TrEMBL record:
UniProt-listed Pfam families: Nol11_C, NOL11_N
Location relative to the cell: Nucleus, Nucleolus
GO molecular function: RNA binding
GO CC field: nucleolus
Domain Nucleolar protein 11 N-terminal intervals: 1-287
Keywords: Activator, Nucleus, rRNA processing, Transcription, Transcription regulation
Domain of life, source organism: Eukaryota
Domain Nucleolar protein 11 C-terminal, first and last residues per copy: 361-673
Listed name of the protein: NOL11 protein
Keyword rRNA processing among UniProt keywords: yes
Species name: Copsychus sechellarum
Annotated GO biological process: maturation of SSU-rRNA
UniProt gene name: Nol11
Amino acid sequence: ISDQKPLGCWSVKHGQILTCPVVCNFETHEYIAVHDDKVLRIWKNEDINLDKAFKATLSADVYRIHSLPQAGPVVLFRGGGVRTLDVLLEAPQQEIENVISGEVIRWSGAFMEGQQPVLIFTTEKDEDFFVYVQKPKLSSLHKYKLEQQESAKPVCFTAHITNQTVTLLCLYSNDSVYQVLIPLQQDTEEEEEEEILSKSLLLNFSASETVLKGESLVALDKDHVAVLGSLTAPRKEPRECLTIWNTKFQTLQTSKELPLGTSGQLWCYEEKFFLIHGKVLTVIMYKCETSSLAAAVGKLKCSQTSDVSSFVNWNTLEDEELVVSFQSQESVALKAESRMNLRSRRSTVTEQQPETLSIGQLLLDLKDASNYVLETELRKLMAKAPTPDLQATIGCVVTALTDRCKRNPKFYPQHFLQEIVETRDLSYSLCPDLMAVALEKKDMHLLQLCLERFPDIPEEITYACLKAFLSMSESHLQNIDVNLDSVICYIDVEFDNKEVKTEIVENGFGAEMEQDMCGTKIPKESQPWSDDDSCPVGPQKAALLNAVLHSAYTETFLLPHLKNLPAGQAILFLRYLYYLYVKCSEKVNTTLPGIRSPTINQIMDWMCLLLDAHFTVMVMLPEAKELLSNLHKFVRAQVRFYSELNKIEGSLRELQRLNHLRESHTYSIEVLEII
């Protein structure tokens, strides 16, 4: 989330529907999903095809899977039956009992009480609401009925467990929150008669003529809740807002309007709120302090800066910069929610350390220093930075340098920036303006380093680098210092940058085979470059393009940008990819020599991406016709060759087995007839 980088994407087949939220198994680091109500899927992050993942068809419809860090996933079925995942996987077709009759589950939650998982869910039937408390490992089940509320019904539920007592909080349609206390009973037998639970009023959201219409309710701790809803007042448009309440003293702790609107859903995890604001996922950090009357009424003395709330950092939602720790880095991270960087944002809602303040103050003091003084002091700062904050400090250093570059066009510490990227473990999110400045300065070497080392580069920046590399003239690139380690082993950089010809020994694909099978002999004059087997770009440009091939991307986000690539540059890039593809096919292990050389998978993926983005244009362009024809014939020849290999695969395995059985140590000549 901090990098706004998708790490994985999986899809079910057409016609299948995911019917409950996907969860992560904290113990095995696997994802668990259910589609079409009964089909369970389990896969790991490295799995690509969801259809090939583990599959189990269950005997009953699943309502929700809850994942607990210390107890593993718990599966709740629509009929009220509960199983732990490990028990369920032992016999997926086991019969699941129906606990509820004619009731519909409205909410469920899983919690830990000691070493035991506790599952709580609420149901509705004929405007009556029921609460079930289950301990799956102890086969314990208790059913309760909620006391009815006149002219109002529950809208949302949340709960927490403290001292063997379940505190169920119910947000009702009359703009109030009620509290229900349920003791965790120790017996393992089911209750014969359902007990009616009484409730007590905890909060009322009506004040004079202003009313908060709540949609989502989340318990933060035993004394605080968060409510997402609309604030309504006479003669005014409803305003959506997020509010935090102190339930102990029944006071509003803090609130924030959400002008772009929300989906009505609010999630809370590890002291962070997650909500949809407008069209983006917004993350807001908070920290619950010990509840006291002084804090509840806003009279608590605090040593924090006045710009930072003592409870929640609303600045994710504001277009303003804060003078807090790591000021330069914070101004980038907090400028807008579309550029959130939680990783580099240190504890702005907790007590600041003297070292942190000194770094932030130093960066402010150096804002107007001379270029030499700035670079010298930043080097000292990096050398003495404490280990826990080293990454954030380096990010601040780079941000300070890029800020100076934008203010002063004549200032550009090229070697210092390259040194930092080469020697420090940085990421794009720590210095988001660095590559933009490098593109503006046309610093190809720095861009190459960033592409090779940053794991979280946005697809827009990757495309900008690709376009810049392809548009740069070969004569200009020859005068630029570029790392050629990725190309030097298969493109000879001597002899005026002409590639040395080598004998081709391909994977069953020699020149004779090409002509015999596909008739692909191409006239010299029709070729866009002078030699059939030579690289269409110089070694410098090839090295830069290899860096792009190594950059991580998500196809969905890269493809729209790639469609904007000029046709001439797209054809040139495809020619280079085709050249690499042929080079890989010359090797038995389909691996190019060299350091950071592109892999066959990277080459194939980019070829497919480029063809997807520009296929219609390339089909229409005469200069691309020969290239597409050659590519098609080459792939077809390889498919035929591997098809022939598959035909003799069984014979080769039998031959290998016979050799193992014979174990002859004497010289011999044998003739084996393959039928």
